[in-house]
Amino acid sequence: RSVRVPLLARTPATPTCAKLMVDNQSAKRKAPSVEASDGYFESYAGLGIHEEMLRCRRTDAYLRAIRSAGLAGKTVLDVGCGTGVLAIACARAGARKVYAVEASAVAECARAVVSASGLTGSVEVIRGKVEEVELPERVDVIVSEWMGCFLLYESMLDSVLRARDRWLKPGGSMLPRRAQMWLAPFRDEEAAEEQKAFWADVHGIDMSCLAPIARAELARRPEVELLLAQNVISSPSCVLDIGDLASCDLSDCQSLCASFDLSSHVRAELHGFVGYFAVELVPGQWLSTAPDAEPTHWRHVLFHCELPLPVQQDERIRGRLTMTQATQNPRCWDVVISFGVSGGGEERTQRYELDVRC
User: Fold this and answer.
1) 281 CB contacts (<8 Å, ≥6 apart)?
2) Which of 28, 140, 155, 195 has its CA 20 to 30 A from that of 240?
3) How do residues 133-148 score in pLDDT, each as one tens digit?
4) What are the two backbone dihedrals, phi and then psi, of residue 242, each rounded to the nearest 5 degrees?
5) Are 75 and 95 in contact (CB under 8 A)?
6) Residues 6+ away with beta carbon under 8 Å from 252
7) Structural contact between residues 119 and 97, judged by C-beta atoms closer than 8 angstroms
8) How far apart are the C-alpha atoms of 331 and 148, rounded to whole Å?
9) Burial of residue 166 (number of CB atoms within 10 Å: 0-12, 13-18, 19+)
């Protein structure tokens, strides 16, 4: 298993990008709401996070989908264009005009890349929040890589759907077109034993009395890391299926409550639940972040149990997942998982804070 990775571990703006960025006073005049944001857009201002995403297989999946999306002669809005790779791909696929909107300072890098590609006539980079920018026309297609860890983290989907309601033509299409969230129970005896052994001998000192405190802390904040498929102990449950992103309501994506009823494949201790997602980019082309799929930069979200739960083979694991946007910062989520087994015992309830401090 990989080391623990914070949900937002961004690097500062690089010197190369800094040379392309407008001075602070000009930036404040052009996009005051960006400068006064909660830090979300600034976290994407450096090229480090963009390099990680560009190297990820998700970029290849998007490029394949764009080439088959039938964009010839159409207008496209790219929400959160980053360095401009998807906007350029749309133009190369024949789009008549691409409006590439980016709220962070990396928009200046996107302008430089578009210019170097000789596409300034067909790709217009606009720095600003998509909720506030003005376009000269409505568009045929909206493209966006809006997904966060466990799909909804960062709540960028809210911005995409608001852009859809303002700028997508009737009958227009979204890329991706469909999104699903999945949850499955997992075991991890190796990690549990390693943690137990660590606290039992910390540089020759028995700190076992601290182990319950460490477990309780781990059970409050999810981890973002890769989970081996062999650690999943049942088939997954689809806890959210947004069947049509071109017509769904924004309110349907701001909270969820879903039940699950799963059968354990093995006799094991349940150490937590793993969350991941899949999106259908264009009909028949899916991008999955499941444990049995090739890893992505999203990794998986692990919701640890404070105490393991013994499960027998073929025993039912039943429960509910509830997620609501955090009151103080709607980009973060309050998560509650209640669960138990068919063999008896009290139902357990665990609360998690899916936020930038994970």
Assistant:
1) 61, 62, 64, 65, 175, 176, 177, 287
2) 140
3) 999 999 999 999 999 9
4) -90, 95
5) yes
6) 242
7) no
8) 10
9) middle
Is 108 annotated as catalytic? no
Q: Which residue has the higher pLDDT, 351 or 31?
A: 351
Distances (CA, A) of 71 to 94, 120, 266: 6, 18, 48
Helices 47-55 & 57-67 angle (0-180, nearest 10): 70
Position with higher pLDDT, 126 vs 155 = 126
Could you say which of 102, 108, 145, 280 is catalytic?
A: 145
Cα dihedral sign for 161, 162, 164, 169? Answer: positive
Q: What is the DSSP string of 113-167?
A: HHHHTT-TTTEEEEES-TTT---SS-EEEEEE---BTTBTTT-HHHHHHHHHHHH
Query: Residue 19 carries which side chain, given as an amino acid letter?
Result: K
Task: Calculate the alpha carbon distances from 295 to 1, 55, 180, 190, 353 in Å.
Answer: 12, 12, 17, 21, 24
Catalytic site residue from 102, 108, 154, 280 = 154
Best CA proximity match to 255, nearest among 342, 156, 333, 163: 333
Q: What is the pLDDT of residues 3-39, one digit of tens each?
A: 334 343 333 333 344 444 433 333 333 333 333 345 6
Give the pLDDT confidence of 242-291 residue by residue, as tens digits.
999 999 999 888 899 999 999 999 999 999 999 999 999 999 999 999 99
The DSSP output letter for 248 is -
What tokens does 222 get? 């999810």
Q: What residues have CB less than 8 Å from 24, skipping those under 6 apart?
A: none
- The structure tokens 């709540």 sit at 155
